[in-house]
Design brief:
With about 450 residues, this protein is α/β, with parallel strands linked by helices. The protein folds into two domains: about 270 residues, Aldehyde Dehydrogenase, Chain A, domain 1 (3-Layer(aba) Sandwich); about 180 residues, Aldehyde Dehydrogenase, Chain A, domain 2 (3-Layer(aba) Sandwich), CATH 3.40.309. It has 15 helices and 21 strands. The protein has a seven-stranded mixed beta sheet with strand order 15-16-17-14-13-18-19, sandwiched between helices. Strands 10-9-8-11-12-20 form a six-stranded mixed beta sheet, sandwiched between helices. β2 and β3 form a beta hairpin. It is globular, with a radius of gyration of 22 Å. The termini are far apart. The protein binds NADP nicotinamide-adenine-dinucleotide phosphate and magnesium ion. The site of NADP nicotinamide-adenine-dinucleotide phosphate (NAP) has 31 residues, from α7 and α8.
Amino acid sequence: MKAHDGMYIDGAWRPAAGPGVIEVVNPADEQVIATVPAGTVEDIDVAVRAARAALPGWAATPPAERAARLAALRDVLVARQDEIAETVTAELGSPPKLSQTVHAGVPIAVTGSYAELAATYAFEERTGNSTVLHEPVGVVGAITPWNYPLHQIVAKTAPALAAGCTVVVKPAEDTPLVARLFAEAVHEAGIPAGVFNLVTGLGPVAGQALAEHPGVDLVSFTGSTAVGRRIGAIASGMVKKVALELGGKSANVILPGADLARAVNVGVANVMSNSGQTCSAWTRMLVHHDQYDEAVELAAAAAAKYGDRIGPLVSATQRDRVRGYIAKGVAEGARLAAGGPDSPHERGYYVSPTVFADVTPGMTIAQEEIFGPVLSVLRYTDEDDALRIANGTVYGLAGAVWAADETEAVAFARRMETGQVDINGGRFNPLAPFGGYKQSGVGRELGAHGLAEYLQTKSFQF
Ligand code: NAP
Ligand code: MG
């Protein structure tokens, strides 16, 4: 057990204003592995003041120099990749391989992409008799969730720093350790004092104080729709910019003629990875009625194979929430094809990989985000029916379409109300804009579109 004191503010580790601490628990064995300070309104105030003081200098730093610092940060993340992976495994419970490739690997790719974008982005352009400057928005308050704990911090911090903004991060209370490691990496990379600040703490205390602080110009939030709605209300009341990355209930649409086994296997892997704690997971599989029974059988077999390889959920609260949804699915008449509400281990916050068949679009498990290893398989009669079901939730974050050929898949994907669609198993692209239609959010992250969120324009007329 390690008791950490201090939060990274203005280039140094400083003691917290209050005595409160947060216990960090390893969800695989339920042991307390560390404590971190629970930051208060006062800590947030000190951090925001540091970020404000650092803003003019960082905003005036030439983009090439900001790019060089981001490249240095990327190199530190590479050098500390094993440590990052071990830390995420300890506080989130994700299997070591996933921690290496995704939890540590993706932030390296994203930081690298912003090192490149900072160097090449057109921060000035001409239109008619005007010159348009793309200037940093100012001080960014970033509030992040635990599911991809380092990625969520990097997806906000790297573009903000590339843009010339300064940042205060409030990470999720369940996963503050990799956030601390990131602050060390920022320091090692030679990013000037005050440009990046970290305050650990509870959402309703430190998170809310950050959103409400008059010294914050832009609030970037990733998390639940319920909290996002509150953050949006606070920000609009103060006329701040706001970016919200919220929940999802994405559809994996398998059209007749697709490679059924591949579409089902990739679809199950997509849902079970990270124990289902992925906002963009394709938690609804849509299959034509002629292929329905075969698809359910394939999905159940694929889920059963996941049995031992799946990690726990992040906390007892999340485990209980997911088990509650599984019970509700059964109560509303869906059929368990794999898994179920019983815990597969005595210790740790595990839930069995679960597949529901005979799910109809109106059921709770087909509408609400479960955020666990639970897949619902729904049947459709024709393409219009499939589209109605795919678009029939309040969310629109991601999705997938499988068809005999790309043209057919793309034609369907164009009609989907969602921010990202993978065509016939397309790969993750760290440069593609990520974000939601409808209640999945406001704004985009990653790539050039993610950078633009942290810029505002000023035009000179000649
Ligand atoms: P959450 O409860 O909304 O928490 C997200 C962050 O907000 C945490 O840092 C949390 O602090 C903080 N917070 C909580 N209450 C707050 C308040 N009143 N004011 C300010 N901040 C507050 O979400 P979660 O349970 O951690 O994460 C799961 C949800 O996030 C899912 O719905 C998922 O879909 C969504 N998500 C979306 C995306 C996306 O990109 N669209 C990505 C990942 C996750 P504490 O940790 O102390 O609660
Ligand atoms: Mg929470």
